[in-house]
Amino acid sequence: MKLDDSELLRTRLFIDGAWREARGGGHVDVDDPATGECVARVCDGGEADVQAAIEAAESALPGWRGLSARERADVLMDWYRLLLEHKQDLAAIMTAEQGKPLKEAAGEIDYGANYIRWFAEEARRVYGDVIPAPSGDRRLITLRQPVGVVAAITPWNFPNAMLARKLAPALAAGCTVVCKPATQTPLSALAMVELAQRAGLPKGVVNVVVGRDASAIGKALTDSPVVRKLSFTGSTSVGKRLMEACAGTVKKLSLELGGNAPFIVFEDADLELAVDALMGAKFRNAGQTCICPNRVLVHESIHDRFVDAVCERVRQLDVGPGDREGVVLGPLINDEAIEKVEELLADARKHGARVVVGGGRMEALGPRFFQPTVITGVTREMRMSCDEIFGPVVAVMSFASEDEAIEIANDTEYGLAAYFCSRSQSRCWRVAEALEAGIIGINEGLVSTEVAPFGGVKESGIGREGARAGIDEYLETKYLCLGGLDRQD
């Protein structure tokens, strides 16, 4: 990994404005998924480090909260510019620790930076209300104030953007933050904080603790009465445990959890557009996204034509290490990830599904590379219809009617994203309103943007990130009732 600015490669914890060794003295290796080689050794923090970070965030809160919205916005805008100036270095760090192709990694830097710019602007639009009072001697007013110290726990699949999506609104609102990035991909978070410090972020406002003992770190965050808000992106099972743990101190919660997104292709769809939408949504980050299409439902009348068109495109995908020119599909994150894909495919084959393209590892490239795969004859009883595949597998099912497609699509405890393709305006409205998901892509596979709310329903989570709603997650509403106004002073 070659960087123009070597200071961006940080390996210590960041607490109270300083780079520190972990109190326990341990380290965790960060591996390159493409090669398995160690990229860096990062300090392995624990409960004591988390407590120090919470104390730093608590001490920094009055000063940061007390700044004007414009002053906070100026710092965020300086941070945004620095992220873009160092985009290539940040992309190189991400590719080395996460595996995605350099071009895609650079796109994520843009995506994450746009959240910071958006919420820098939203900081100046946190409005209260004047409410018509029931009598002339009163005035009723609401204020919106920062919730306080925030804990942010982020996943490995989007190590820059997921942190930006949490930090930007929290900081814009006037909160201070303790971050726990995934141990597979901590370098991106540490590089981002290095640039935030250069942008003028005061000490203690953002703190980063990396550590393998996720249970101990999570418990320290959830048990602390100082931490008033938890924002988590990850699995539904972990989200449920965190939600339960936060009950003791009644914290505010934002949870972006698992998904099982359907991608429906109706008989009246523009097939070329539908294939483009599926390819963009399915193979981004090698299928390792929470809004990735997990079940592709195709009308029986166009099933074979659609599958043929998808297979042609899949065969053209260039798979390899993310730093190689032209690569569009990198490795899976670790051995467990590739083993899960193999298990789901084995279960599908056992129950009658047929692999049309791919279906195995690419040993010549390395143990974590998996062939982009298309499998047909998938049924609702197969595990891949229920479990997140989180890999480059297009699992195709057929359906006979619109009602059947909607019923299959909604037959899941998840409700993060859903996609469908149709030329009919009336069907677009009808199906969009019937699908049980927080995000709907209609004739479009790339739906994420900082200007729109991101989040799910059912067991896919609570709250929204991005858009105007994103900053609301970090604010409390305070009601003021001013009485006695009919009396002379």
What is the structure about, briefly put?
GO terms for molecular function: succinate-semialdehyde dehydrogenase (NAD+) activity. This protein has helices at about 45-65, 70-85, 85-100, 100-120, 160-175, 185-200, 215-225, 235-245, 270-280, 305-315, 335-350, 400-410, 425-435, 465-470; strands at about 15, 20, 25-30, 40-45, 130, 140-145, 150-155, 175-180, 205-210, 225-235, 250-255, 260-265, 295-300, 355, 375, 395-400, 415-420, 440, 460, 475-480.
What does this structure look like?
- The protein contains 14 helices and 20 strands.
- The protein is an alpha/beta fold.
- Helix 2 (69-85) runs antiparallel to helix 4.
- 52% of the residues are buried.
- Helices cover 37% and strands 20% of the residues.
- It has two domains: 6-258 and 455-478, 3-Layer(aba) Sandwich (Aldehyde Dehydrogenase, Chain A, domain 1); 261-411 and 417-442, Aldehyde Dehydrogenase, Chain A, domain 2 (3-Layer(aba) Sandwich).
- The chain has helices at 47-66, 69-85, 87-98, 102-122, 161-173, 186-198, 214-223, 236-246, 271-282, 303-315, 335-350, 402-409, 425-434, 467-472, and strands at 13-15, 18-20, 27-31, 38-43, 129-131, 139-146, 149-153, 176-180, 206-208, 227-233, 252-256, 261-265, 293-299, 354-357, 373-376, 393-399, 417-421, 439-442, 461-462, 475-482.
- Strand 7 (149-153), helix 5 and strand 8 (176-180) form a beta-alpha-beta unit.
- The protein has a seven-stranded mixed β-sheet, sandwiched between helices. It has a six-stranded mixed β-sheet with strand order 9-8-7-10-11-19, sandwiched between helices. Strands 5-6-20 form a three-stranded antiparallel β-sheet, with no helix packed on it.
